[in-house]
Amino acid sequence: MGNNLIPLRIAGVGYSLPETVITNEDLTKLYDTSDEWIYTRTGIKERRVVSGEENAIDLGYQAAKNAIEKSGIDIEELDLILAASSAPPDLYPAIACHIHQRLGIQRQIPAFDITAACSGLIYGLSIAKAYISSGMYKNILIVATDNNSRLVDWTDRGTSILFGDGAGAMVVTASEDGVDDVIAIDIKADGNYGNLIELAFDGKNCPLVEQYEEKPKGIRMNGRGVYTFVAKILPHYVEELVAKAGMNADDIDYLIPHQANIRIIQAVQERLGYSDDKVVTNIKYYGNTSAASIPIALAESVEKGKVKLGTTAILCGFGAGMTWGGAVVRLREGIC
Ligand code: COA
User: Fold this and answer.
1) What is the CATH number assigned to the segment(s) 1-336?
2) What pTM does this model have?
3) Is the Cβ atom of 288 under 6 angstroms away from ligand 1?
4) Smallest CA separation from ligand 1 atom 14, residue
5) What is the pLDDT of residue 2?
């Protein structure tokens, strides 16, 4: 390798989805819309949503358990838990701390959340890579979980059509054979575009200081603005990432992108010159599950046999912030 950095192995991936399905047809009971309008603009037909007491912690816990089982790593060997979420049920304790407790881990290890919206899994992988490379930690669990159905404004037909709930997880470890499964990784943010997707926290001022002012409720999104921003930067960004990996697009087997809008996915696909069988899409059934969307797409496509192992893939995503990121990874046998 020519340096002292420790390579990373992706040891296991898993996912979890709530059972309740909401179809586009169902949404016509809430507002004036149609299956045709939603499907042609987004590629979404239905999405899953939590019900009752179920929340992002439950989904994240299931996905984590799944990924840990696949990895063959004992829970007491985990050195760090990272949770990526933009829809936590509480501001604290962190979801990562809840997952630590739910898994029944006895060791006291660090656990914290990352707020990078839909780029959360890539941000988590990048953080995990830095810790593993340096030798600081060996085994890291990354959980990406969101339940945006509790945060969207269900009267806003421009936004609530897009989101669904779900969780994905990845266990990464120090590679024993010198091969790094993260061939290239990059994360970015530009806060100047922060107002494209916002979710205000409804904190109240002290009444002795000033009158409390009601904040707007639910996710507020400039859909057209997001689309224009992402369509402009992402295809070129992914191309640069492939170059950073020292590869040509043809050398890489799959594109496993964030599932936000089928037209954005197709723009990246076209730039890479990929045929449909190289591109993983499940947006039709789950909508945009935020941080969870990449790991769900990865784990499900392997489970269903669409993605073969012993291959390579480009992961890429973007979200509120604006944040974005991508990775070229190796998918070894046994991860799922
Ligand atoms: N059904 C029917 N009509 C709808 C509608 C719906 N669900 N939502 C919006 N409309 C209407 C609007 O009111 C508007 O009507 P008007 O022209 O009479 O004012 C018209 O459709 C066009 O609205 P616009 O918001 O410009 O539509 P669009 O073509 O940009 O599509 C999105 C909207 C949200 C589907 C699209 O912008 C998008 O997917 N953007 C990316 C968002 C994204 O990826 N966010 C997540 C980031 S992680």
Assistant:
1) 3.40.47.10
2) 0.96
3) yes
4) 158
5) 52
